[in-house]
Structures are given as C-alpha cells and as structure tokens.
Write a structure and sequence with these properties.
The complex is a heterodimer of chains A (443) and B (269). Chain A has 443 residues and is mostly helical. Chain A has 17 helices and four strands. In chain A, the strands form two sheets. Chain A has a two-stranded antiparallel sheet. A two-stranded antiparallel ribbon of chain A has the order 3-4. Classes of the chains: A mainly alpha (443), B alpha/beta (269). Chains A and B meet through α10, α11 and α12 of A and α2, α3, α4 and α6 of B.
Chain lengths: 443, 269
C-alpha cells in the first residue's frame, strides 16, 4: 500500500510540475498590460485528480490482475475484428441515412470526416499495404485541388470532367516523386516525401501568376447533378427548378455529402479488390520483405511506383472534391499538419485495415469536433464561482484531452484499432493473422 | 548450364572472391563448400544479382540454348527471365502472409500478366480468376511435395523452423526455375528433417531443375551432390566428385588444418 501511495505522490508531483504553469497561472489583460494571476484551487483540483486516479490504478493492479488485463486486451482485439463483419455495414447504413437528420451541422461535419476517410484509405495503400512511410501525402491532395480549380476556371470544364483529370495528374506526380526517391528506404524516404510535400506548397505559394499565390483561387465552380446546378435562383437548369422545389443551401450540402461518400466508397472498393490481386499481394510482400520479392522476380521499383501512383490518384480525387466543396483554395489548406493528420488516422486505425482507418477518421475528425461542442456545453453548465475560471476556457483544453486519448489508445492497442490481417486467399477458411507476425514495413 | 569465369568481388580493399571459375552442369546438384568466410554467399549473391561482380562473367544457358549474362542483368530479371531462384541463409519468408499467399506471390509475374495492368482485373474484365486457379493448383502441388497442405492457411511466420525452410524452397520453385540456388538449406535442421530435405532436393532434380547449394552439413553434401566446388579465402581449392574432394589434401587442410600443418599441406599442394 505504501508503494502505491508513493507512486501516487510522485505522479502528483509530476502533475504539479506540468499543470502548475498550464492551469495554475492565467494571464489577464488589464489597462496596464497583461498581469499574471495565480489559480491555486484549479491546480489543486487537477493535482488531486491525478493523485487519486493513480492511487486507484496502482491499487487495483496486482500481478494476477495484470495478466487478466492482457488476455482481456486480446479478447477485445478479437471482438473488434469480428465486430468488423457487422460494424462495417452498420456504419455504411448510418452514413447513407445521415442526411435524413436534415441538420446542416452534422452533414457538413460528416462531409469533412468522409474526406479524411478517403484520404486515409488512399494513404493506407502506400503506408499500410506497401509499407512506404509517406509524410508528404498532402502534396497529392494539393495537386488534385489545384488541378481541378485551374482546369475548371481556365477551360470552363465541369467537376465531373475534371475529377478524373485531377486524379490522373496527381498520380502522375506520384510517379514523378516516386522515381528518384524510391531507392531510399525507411527514415530517408520519409524525410524526402516530407520535403516533397513542402516543395509543392511553396511552389503554389510563390507561383502567383498561375495559382494566385497566398491569395488562393476563388469562385471555383460547384459540382452539378447531370448538368443541373444548385444555384439559389431556382430557375430552369437548376435542381430546384427542375424538380419544382424550393431551393435551399442544404440541397447542395447533401449532394456534396453523397458525392464524397461515393468517392470514398470507390476508394475502398478499389483497395479491397487490388488487395486480392497480384498487385496488392506484391505490395504486401514488399512490406514484409523487399529482398525476398526481388529474388522472386518482382520488379520492386515498378511495384512501389504503382502503390505511390494509386495512393496519389485517390489523394487527387479528394483534393478535387475539397476544391469544389470550399469553392476557395489557398496554400494554407495544404500544410504538413494535414499529412500528419491523415498519417495519424492510418496509424491509429491499424496499418492496412480499411475499417480501422474509417473508425479512426470518425474519432479523430468527428470526435474532436464533437468534443469541442461537449466542452462548450459543459462550460455553460458549470456556473459556480469555484470553476468559473476553468469553465470559460474548458473548450481550449480539447487538444490536450484529445492528445491524452490518443496516447492511451496507442498504449492499449499499439498496432492500431483494428490490427491483424485477413489473408487474401485461402484453401479452407480464412484465419485472421495476428498483428505481431505482420511486418510494418521500412520502405 | 552455369559457367562462372574469372569472378572477382571486391568490397573496398577486401577481395571476397578472387578469380573464381567453375561450371555447374544441367540436371546435377552442384555444392559449393568451404570454411566460414570463404566467400560462398558472396558467389551466390553475384549469381543471383544481389551484388554486381567487380570482374568476371556468369553465363547461364537454358536447355533451349538461350544464354543469359547474369552479371549484367538487373536483380529481378535474373529471377523472372533467366529463371534463377534462390533461398536465403537466414530464412526470408513473408511472415505475415499465409503459406499459400507466399506461394502465390512467387507467381506474381505470370498472374500480373493476366490482370491487364491491374486495371481490368479491378473492373472484373480479365482472365485473372482462371490464372489464379492455375496458380493455386501449382501452389498445392508444392505444398504436397513439402507436406504443408494442412497448414496452407496459417501465417508463414508461425511455422516451425524446418517447415519454414521447406516452404522457402517451395516458394522458390514456384517461379519455375531452371537453376535453384540454396544457401545452407540444412542449417538448423535435425537429422530426420535433414533426410527429408535430401529427398526433396533429389525430387527437384528429378523434375529437371539444376541445383546449386552452399552447405556446411557434410552429410547432406556428400550424399546428394553430383559435383563439389571447394572455396577457401575466395579461391577455388578443389573441384570434382564427392569422392575426389573428400580425398583432396588441400580440402582436408582447409577444414582441419591451422598453422604449421596447414602451411605444410599448402606446400605439397
């Protein structure tokens, strides 16, 4: 017991050191400039929470309990894998039915989530299947977005004509990037792809005559439904005019939602099919052992290039969609943090797992947004003087809470939400392969 | 079949292989033996395209008469066009893939050709399903040969060591090689597994594939080889049938002798 107390005390000291400055001090603007005010009660509350929380955790964990926990984790892993069978269709039903809520907030949020699901699935081909760590995936997203914006504005082409072109251009850039860098491996590959992502952004920022530089491109055309626009005029040639209904913005929002849903499902379908074919199998073999692949006559360079190009293709599609949804793009939307977010989604979901990536995108993008709403709501509820200081800034803590949640998740499930691998072909029944055996790839 | 002449491989100042010449005949099992560090694996890596030799030539002649200068071909073409397959000293299986998947990856090039650059197969417009059935049949043939049919759907990394060795050989055979290079296939096997391996190698030779093997296990080498090449310090010190090589004093010296005794024998030789 004394050991547990000491452990809890140490944790409390660490918490005091961390939260002392973060929670315990608040800057208040006054006429004489900023003043620093102490907030002892709030700090005490946080430190006490850590102390008792740690005491609870340590106290309950004897050696036997620990063993049970491990087996419980394994059971959870299997349950999650089996849950995939009904969870995936259930998620799809929810996704299709979502616009029925009629809430613009939720449809907008779901559109954002689906964009990241699609990006995650695209990057999953490169990182999850082929095992090539790509830190510059946003480059292809940017190429797709700018390709659509420029093609649409310069040649007056519609969204559905430009979409494949944007994808092909992005795939082309995937090959252009791939050629010189694919002889690099592991960390070196990661750094060069990171640089490539930045180069694209810097070029876009500085090539003012073509891309408008930091001002971006405005007035990007919206997509049409079989030639019918979603204009608010409601006249002939618009969706509202054709169907004889009142034009609302929601119609366009819902249409965009179904477009990205279809694009994401296309990405998923292609990845799943490719995985069961020689190309996908070669990608996975490459992740497992590149030297063995070469000894079996597989052209390693070409195989890596196809992975890069296929991933980039879907990144380009997503980019074109992003441009048409926002109607405005600028280099600010294509910073490294986007690549990092998409990569985090793939890693958190479980490398190579389609369901895992979708869940991770829902949690990371949707969950973060819902957490902000929840914290604001909490802040409204906490009116008492004691918490007034914390309450007003509770929403600001969402990144901290979110980061903590991610750390906890990776501790509990180090190989991602859905780890393990389903064989692509079997003589008898397909048996799930434990994550420990599956290589993560070193490029 | 395989003619190696004047093969030299330098790593910086170190000459791992020095002017080596030998030939392996078609339909035979040729063994390359020698003490540790004699350059055996380096020779293998040159033949299979993992190293580019500093000097010398390696020419493979197919039964059809077609000739392949291996020292100039890119690594993956040596397997796909010249049909030279290999295994590795430290087993290199695709551990996270099933036994069957391992055997299908080995047939990648043929399968890929049936998919219409991958695009048609995604759309379901190619002859791919038939090609996959044929590939699975071939995999099944080799699974039967190595006695792993029961475990076809288990991950390769979960197999016992001896089974992993056999699987690696079966995987190499799935590229339909004319020459199979085995890097210490019997390492770490118990006597019974070693005997099974002998039978497997003889069966492979019986199907018309030539073998080149590096081996430390003299039991395996003497029993199944038709022809033995002995290396020491990157040079060939003996070449001939198992009986010849066993009686060669230079070989005995290289294996047993150190110091004075070694020098004496070298003088005699």
């Amino acid at each position: 017991m004394s050991a547990a107390l000491r452990d809890a005390f140490l944790s409390a000291v660490v918490a005091l050191g961390l939260f002392g400055p973060m929670v315990g001090l608040v800057t208040t603007p006054t006429p004489n400039g900023l003043t620093l005010d102490p907030r002892p009660i709030a700090t005490a509350v946080v430190v006490a929470l850590v102390f008792f929380g740690r005491l609870l955790v340590v106290g309950r964990r004897s050696a036997r309990a620990r063993r049970e926990e491990v087996s419980r984790n394994r059971a959870l892993a299997e349950a999650l894998t089996h849950a995939g069978r009904w969870l995936a269709p259930a998620l799809l039903v929810v996704a299709v039915a979502l616009p029925l809520t009629g809430s613009r907030y939720y449809v907008d949020l779901a559109t954002l989530v689906l964009t990241y699901v699609m990006l995650g699935w695209g990057l999953n081909i490169v990182v999850g299947l082929a095992g090539l760590l790509d830190l510059g995936y946003v480059a292809f997203y940017a190429v797709g977005a700018y390709s659509y914006a420029l093609l649409a504005q310069t040649f007056d082409l519609g969204f559905w004509t430009c979409l494949p072109l944007a994808g092909i251009l992005a795939a082309l850039w995937g090959v252009v990037l791939g050629f010189p860098v694919l002889r690099l491996r592991g960390d070196y590959l990661a750094i060069v792809t990171l640089a490539f992502g930045e180069i694209i952004r810097v070029v876009i920022t500085n090539w003012v005559s073509l891309t408008g530089g930091p001002n971006g491109i405005v007035g990007i055309p919206r997509p049409t439904l079989f030639g019918l626009s979603f204009s608010m005029s409601g006249g002939p040639g618009t969706v509202a005019g054709f169907f004889g209904i009142e034009p609302t913005t929601l119609q366009r929002v819902i249409y965009l939602y179904y477009v990205i849903l279809a694009l994401a499902l296309l990405t998923n379908w292609v990845s799943l099919r490719l995985r069961r074919q020689p190309l996908g199998r070669a990608w996975e073999a490459l992740r497992e052992d590149e030297v063995a692949c070469r000894s079996l006559g597989i052209n390693v360079t070409n195989t890596k290039l196809t992975a890069f190009a296929t991933g980039a293709l879907f990144g380009g599609f997503a980019g074109a969609f992003f441009a048409t949804r926002q109607a405005f793009i600028s280099p600010e939307s294509f910073t490294f943090i986007e690549s990092a977010t998409v990569l985090a989604i793939v890693v958190l979901g479980g490398l190579g797992s389609q369901l895992g990536v979708a869940l991770a995108a829902v949690i990371m993008i949707g969950g973060l947004e819902l957490l902000r709403g929840f914290l604001s709501w909490m802040a409204d509820q906490m009116g008492s003087d004691l918490f007034a200081g914390i309450a007003s800034e509770l929403p600001l803590y969402r990144m901290l809470i979110f980061g903590l949640a991610l750390v906890v998740m990776m501790v509990l499930r180090p190989r991602g939400l859905v780890s393990g691998r389903t064989p692509t072909v079997a003589l008898g029944a397909r048996k799930e392969i434990a994550a420990e055996l599956v290589a993560q790839g070193r490029g | 079949m395989l003619e190696v002449s004047g093969l030299t491989m330098r790593f910086g100042g170190l000459k791992a292989v020095d002017g080596l010449s030998f030939a392996a005949r078609a339909g035979e099992i040729t063994a390359v033996i020698g003490p540790n560090g004699a350059g055996k694996t380096t020779v293998f890596n040159c033949i299979t395209g993992f190293y580019r030799p500093t000097e010398g030539s390696i020419v493979l002649t197919h039964p059809s008469g077609e000739r392949f200068p291996l020292q100039r071909m890119p690594g993956h073409r040596i397997a796909s066009a010249a049909k030279v397959a290999r295994t590795f000293q430290n087993i290199r299986l695709f551990a996270g893939m099933t036994v069957l998947e391992n055997l299908l990856v080995a047939q990648h090039n043929r399968l890929m050709a049936s998919t219409g650059f991958g695009v048609l197969a995604v759309l379901g417009l190619s002859r791919y399903p038939a090609a996959e059935r044929a590939a699975v049949d071939k995999a099944r043939h080799w699974l039967d040969a190595i006695g792993l049919t029961e475990r076809a759907d288990d991950p390769a990394g979960a197999l016992p060591y001896g089974a992993q060795r056999r699987l690696e050989i079966a995987r190499a055979m799935c590229i339909d090689p004319v020459l199979l290079c085995l890097d210490e296939p019997a390492a770490g096997l118990n006597p019974r597994e070693s005997e099974e391996l002998n039978q497997l190698l003889l069966k492979i030779r019986g199907e018309g594939c030539s073998l080149l093997l590096i081996e430390h296990d003299m039991g395996v080498v003497m029993k199944i080889s038709d022809h033995i090449v002995v290396l020491d310090h990157g040079k060939k010190i003996s070449d001939g049938t198992p009986q010849d090589v066993r009686a060669d004093p230079a070989v005995i010296a290289a294996y047993l002798g150190e110091g004075e005794e070694d020098e004496e024998v070298e003088v005699q030789a």
